[in-house]
Amino acid sequence: MDINRNGTETVNTARITSIFMRIMLMAVFAAATLSAQRVESQRAFGVGERLLFDVNFGFITAGYAEMVIPKLDTVMGNTTYQVQFNVRSTPTFDMFFEVRDQYETYLDTAGIYPWRFEQHIREGKFKRDYSAYFDQKNHVARTPDGEFPIPPYVHDIMSAFYYARTLDYTGFKVGQRVKLTNFFKGKSNPLEIKYLGTQKVTVDAGTFRCIIIEPMVKEGGLFKSEGRILIWMTDDERRIPVKVNTKVIIGSIDAELKEYSGLNGPLKAKLP
Question: Is 7 left (phi over 0), alpha (psi -120 to 50) or beta?
Fold first, then answer.
């Protein structure tokens, strides 16, 4: 809250937008389990996929988010998907608080685990850059702060979500939880996701059959939220995120799928 000239509290919606964009990243990228299992083949995504979201606070569109896989690349001698996540505020919100955030991961095409991760944060006057190379053979993460031991096939926040998209939730029971682990700034942070069932969701991109998951953020983890976070993903092989919702003190903030292209196959969860 801010204090206006009359001495009353007002909502700093620009700052709330920035905070939510961070929450959205946690929510969207948290849904994956650390596992020794390799994914020999997956049908969820491929090169050329592009997902565009509106970030809404009430009836106001405060920002946009884009998830895209532009090409294959080679990192440490391994073939990878280059995956990018970009977040920006709208021109209207730029006048109050400009946001230009970029995240990038390089996923092993066979195992869906990362070899490299980058983060570039530009929010108002705040600036942060971070990078990590994951030596998955020797179980070491190399960052600007030094080298750190990592468990086999450790994930960053982006690779975690893409790995989650390869999982089959068909046999999950409502309330069932999956243990998660992400690496960031020298630490492996535990998270859990709770499966909440299925639901039909309508957004600008259409109406979809979805599964619902809820990230359960533990104390001391990479991200912390004061409100509940829910994620809707298509209930088919694509597992694309359709909607993210978080409750905050003054209301509700949503990220909703606006456009999609370059999918790795038919979107069977989309309804007429």
Answer: left
Paired tokens of 218:
């533990």
Q: What is the DSSP string of 160-203?
A: HHHHHTTS--TTPPTT-EEEEEEEETTEEEEEEEEEEEEEEEEE
Distance CA 28, CA 26 (A): 6
Q: Which two tokens stand for residue 221?
A: 């983890």
In tens, the pLDDT along 147-167 reads 999 988 888 878 888 888 888
Mapping DSSP to helix (H, G, I), strand (E, B) and coil, where does residue 103 land? strand
- The closest alpha carbon to 242, from 216, 260, 224, 228, belongs to 260
* Local structure of 118: helix, strand or coil: strand
CATH fit for domain 9-258, picks 2.40.360, 3.30.70, 3.40.50, 2.60.40: 2.40.360
Name the residue ranges covered by the structural domains of the chain.
Answer: 9-258
**41-58 tens-digit pLDDT:** 789 999 999 999 998 877
